Amino acid sequence: MSLDGESAPEFELPSTGGDTVALADELESGPAVVLINRGVWCSFCAEQLQTFSEVSYDMWFHDDVSVVPVVPDSLPKVTEMRDRYDLSIQLLADPDGEVCERYSGTEETSHGLTGKAGTYVIDEEGIVRYEDVSDTPADRTYGNWVRYYIRNDYEPPFEG
């Protein structure tokens, strides 16, 4: 099921920042990037999160973009992941995988329930303008590309 061009599913999850984050609240000030991760054990997810951590302040300061990473693990494990990789962005804990399932889906692996890695750019109206669900664990959309995608009025920045 693709969400491209559809209304983004609303959610509210606990954050490693100590509060609860709702997608609707994030969209009040501008676009949001929802990142669905496989789990705290996934090094490819950590690499992707680091690229968003590097550009998140710039995207927030210049474009009012919120980066909203969702990780299907408990809040203590997700907090440990944030600290281990020295991320400047807060992560959201989705221990039952309910939000992951509503976006890119979930699957059972040797690590238990995992999210299927996905990147979603959601405009101020709550419409999914970009969707990338990874075919393989290493297939990711990185922060810098998303920054320029948003700045290019939701068009691929390096075509043509």
Helix and strand topology:
Layout: E1 12-14, E2 20-22, H1 23-27, E3 32-36, H2 43-63, E4 66-71, H3 75-84, E5 92-93, H4 98-102, E6 106-109, E7 112-115, E8 118-122, E9 128-133, H5 143-151
Parallel strand pairs: 3-4, 4-5
Antiparallel strand pairs: 1-2, 3-8, 6-7, 8-9
Helix pairs in contact: 2-5
Structure overview:
This protein has helices spanning 23-27, 43-63, 75-84, 98-102, 143-151, and strands spanning 12-14, 20-22, 32-36, 66-71, 92-93, 106-109, 112-115, 118-122, 128-133. By secondary structure, the protein is an alpha/beta fold. It has one domain: Glutaredoxin. The strands form 3 sheets. A 5-stranded mixed β-sheet has the order 5-4-3-8-9. Strands 1-2 form a two-stranded antiparallel sheet. A two-stranded antiparallel ribbon has the order 6-7. Helix 3 (75-84) links the parallel strand 4 (66-71) and strand 5. The N and C termini lie far apart (29 Å). Keywords: Antioxidant, Disulfide bond, Oxidoreductase, Peroxidase, Redox-active center. Pfam families: AhpC-TSA (PF00578). It catalyses: a hydroperoxide + [thioredoxin]-dithiol = an alcohol + [thioredoxin]-disulfide + H2O. It comes from Halosimplex pelagicum.
